[in-house]
Amino acid sequence: MERLNVLVTGASRGIGAAIALRFARAGARVLGSARSAEALERIAGEVRAAGGEFIPCPMEVSDRAAVETEVGKALAASGGKLDVLVNNAGIFDIIPVWELHPEQFTRMIEVNLYGPLYVTLACLGALAHSDRAHVINISSTAGQQGYPGGTAYCTSKYALRGLSDGMRIDLAERGIRISTIYPGATDTEIFDDLPGDWDRASMNRPEDVSDVVWETYSAKEELTDVNVAPPSN
């Protein structure tokens, strides 16, 4: 049976690494993207140990030219077919609006919104060769409601939902499913450098999100907007 080809952005750590490993356990070929080729080396070994193949795709998702070049290389190395794209790469910060500089806002939009757009556009041709093509965008509960200091981040994630909804309509005739996943706060390295007293024990784990991504892909029907349940502990 032909291996499943999956491209995961932001794959070197946190939620992205958990998603890559979840698909690897199903025997998938993972095209793993991150800004640093060095950062991809660790997850490459873990993917292979979990039973999958790994093709590195180092790139900055907000750089359209780099995305087109690096995605093209990775897809060529995987046979030119893609079954699943998981747009997970993103940045996060807490900035009250009165402290928000336009450059910070722009950067948030470039990575969290333009990034998924650029990567999806670069993958459309390869997705067309799959009979179960699926684009899964990792949003956040911040894409459903605002929170203090979240003006920039919430805007980017609300907009990502709009991108998903619009693409779903446009790509339906091509048989490409589009899903948006909404995790709550998830215990990843992103909180290591953020100020504040975070109760990380009450957060979701990256594996909670990766399980939902796998279930969303595996579902017979198209699941459009999927929340990640809060931890039970």
Description:
It is a single chain. The chain contains six helices and seven strands. With 233 residues, it is α/β, with parallel strands linked by helices. It has one domain: NAD(P)-binding Rossmann-like Domain (Rossmann fold, 3-Layer(aba) Sandwich), CATH 3.40.50.720. It has a seven-stranded parallel sheet, with helices on both faces. The longest helix has 26 residues, at 102-127.
Rg computed from alpha carbons, rounded to a whole number of angstroms: 17 Å
Main sheet: strand order: 3-2-1-4-5-6-7
Q: Which stretches are low in confidence, meaning pLDDT under 50 for 5 or more residues running?
A: none
Please, how many helices? 6
Work out the count of structural domains.
1
Q: What is the H/E string?
A: EHEHEHEHEHEHE
In the CATH scheme, the class would be Alpha Beta
Q: State the CATH architecture.
A: 3-Layer(aba) Sandwich
What structural class is derived from the secondary structure elements? Answer: alpha/beta
CATH level 4 superfamily: NAD(P)-binding Rossmann-like Domain
- How far the N terminus sits from the C terminus, by CA atoms, comes to 39 Å
CATH fold-level topology: Rossmann fold
Largest sheet: 7 strands, parallel
Q: How many strands?
A: 7
Helical content band: 40-55%
Q: What is the 3D shape?
A: globular
- The fraction of residues assigned to DSSP E strands is 5-15%
Mean pLDDT across all amino acids? 92
